[in-house]
Amino acid sequence: MTEHQNRRRNNMRSPFYDYSQYGCYFVTICTKERHCLFGNVQDGEMRLNELGNIVKNGLLSVLSDYPKSEFSHYVVMPNHLHFIWFNQDGVDLSHIVKLIKGRISFQYGQYAKENNIEKPPLWQRSFYEHIIRNEEDFLRIGEYIENNPLQWELDRFNPKNIVQVVRAG
Is the sign of the CA dihedral 36, 113, 101, 104 positive or negative? Predict the structure, then answer.
């Protein structure tokens, strides 16, 4: 086995928490290898391209299946997506993320086919989540999401700020 095949993926979810219960969750989903595919930030404002609009519409389409729930805050950035999912439908968070990624990937495939363009992989495996436990946490994260385009130059997901690790052969 190669080193990559031998590695075990760690589950980042809390093993004793029910992610389908009523509550708020902060989620980040990144593009594969942090490629900037969804548009760009100009003058502190995110300008979505066609694929960015597919991402936005794919995200919001989930609300038609779960009408009691909501995205209280969200932002599509050049290479990632942040949102707060207020779960009021009792659906598991992993299911929501799978649904979002799946719908967007399908639409991305249709778009690539219609425009005769190459379709590299879209999503990084898994996602980041944080259980929002109180109003202070909610307000802090909501402000972070709203200000994310303004902070793009400092953002750790900005390719200019990602440090490449070179491994010795």
Answer: positive
| Token pair for 3 | 């080193």
**Per-residue model confidence as pLDDT tens digits over 8-27:** 444 455 566 667 788 899 99
Strands (DSSP E) contained in 54-101 are 70-76, 80-87
> Which tokens sit at 152?
């793009």
Low-confidence ranges of the chain (pLDDT < 70): 1-18, 163-169
Q: What Å distances lie between residue 45 and 64, 66, 146, CA to CA? A: 28, 29, 10
* Three-state DSSP state, 165: coil
Cα–Cα distance between 96 and 145 in angstroms, integer?
Answer: 19
pTM as predicted: 0.84
In DSSP terms, 86 is beta-bridged to 24, 70
